[in-house]
Amino acid sequence: MPINADYRGPADLPEVIALFPLPGALLLPRGQMPLNIFEPRYLAMIDDAFRDGHRLIGMIQPDATHSEKDGTPKLFQVGCVGRITQLAESGDGRYILELTGVSRFKLVEELSVKTPYRQCRVDYFPYLDDFTARKGEDEVDREALLTVLTDFLKANNLKVDWDGVETAPNEALVNALAMMSPYGAPEKQALLEAPDLKTRAEILIAVTEMDLAKKRTSGDPPLQ
């Protein structure tokens, strides 16, 4: 999705961003993530993002295996900042919005703040390639990706818009499938932290093949 802001590199993004920790949520550069915001602290976060003018939110997964001394879940060290590109009010106090991914970041330091939501200092420089659209997509094994997608759809009695799949560029296809994948936090984090698009596609193929093999041997029912 085209966005009005032009982000050419880390200097175009703030070093301190608000974070929205959400288990199983995967946002990738130029990917779109719908969100239903209803908690007061995150409603305040959205208001502040517009008040500050940048409309940016950092999506990151909480690490369920570790907690801070006060019991607050620790965060994984890599997330993705997104710009609010659509916003609607529900009429019952919620915001319905869509984030468009800009760049991944590494968490440098969580700040002590008065806001009800968490804020961190982040570093975008390890992910300079995120600012270049379709970087490395010619190296993706598209045929292998479509083969495993077909197997996954058949195993779970699902359908897909094949016209849309066939016309999608490799970057959009890989990232959309990764974001929509039904896997857990560790797998989603591995997809996020993949060094390049080719590796992300390979991880997605491998995880899906393992999931399909597990279902075949265990007799687990397909996804509903």
SSE blueprint and pairings:
Elements lengths: L15 E6 L10 E6 L2 H13 L3 E5 L1 E6 L5 E3 L2 E12 L5 E16 L8 E5 L18 H14 L6 H6 L2 H11 L4 H9 L3 H22 L6
Parallel strand pairs: 1-3
Antiparallel strand pairs: 1-8, 2-7, 3-6, 4-5, 6-7, 7-8
Helix pairs in contact: 2-6, 4-6, 5-6
Organism: Rhodopseudomonas pseudopalustris
Protein name: Lon N-terminal domain-containing protein
InterPro entries: Lon_prtase_N, Lon_prtase_N_sf, PUA-like_sf
Structure in words:
With 224 residues, the protein is of the alpha+beta class. It has six helices and eight strands, in the order E-E-H-E-E-E-E-E-E-H-H-H-H-H. The strands form two sheets. The protein has a five-stranded mixed β-barrel. Helix 2 (142-155) packs parallel to helix 6, helix 4 crosses helix 6 (197-218) and helix 5 (185-193) packs antiparallel against helix 6. The protein is globular and about 50 Å long. The mean pLDDT is 94. This is Lon N-terminal domain-containing protein. InterPro entries: Lon_prtase_N (IPR003111), Lon_prtase_N_sf (IPR046336), PUA-like_sf (IPR015947). Residues 17-212 form the Lon N-terminal domain.
Question: Short description, anyone?
Answer:
Residues 17-212 form the Lon N-terminal domain. The protein is an alpha+beta fold.
Biggest sheet, strands in spatial order? 1-3-6-7-8
The CATH architecture of the largest domain can be named as Roll
Radius of gyration: 18 Å
- CATH superfamily membership of the largest domain: LON domain-like
CATH class of the largest domain: Mainly Beta
The secondary-structure class comes to alpha+beta
Mean pLDDT score, rounded? 94
The unreliable regions are: none
Shape descriptor: globular
For the record, give the distance between the C-alpha atoms at the N and C termini, rounded to a whole number: 29 Å
Question: Which H/E pattern describes the elements?
Answer: EEHEEEEEEHHHHH
Classify the fold: give the CATH topology of the largest domain.
Archaeosine Trna-guanine Transglycosylase, Chain: A, domain 4
For the largest beta-sheet, the strand count, sense and barrel status come to: 5 strands, mixed, barrel
Q: What is the tally of helical segments? A: 6
Q: Approximately how much helix is present in the residues?
A: 25-40%
Strand content: 25-35%
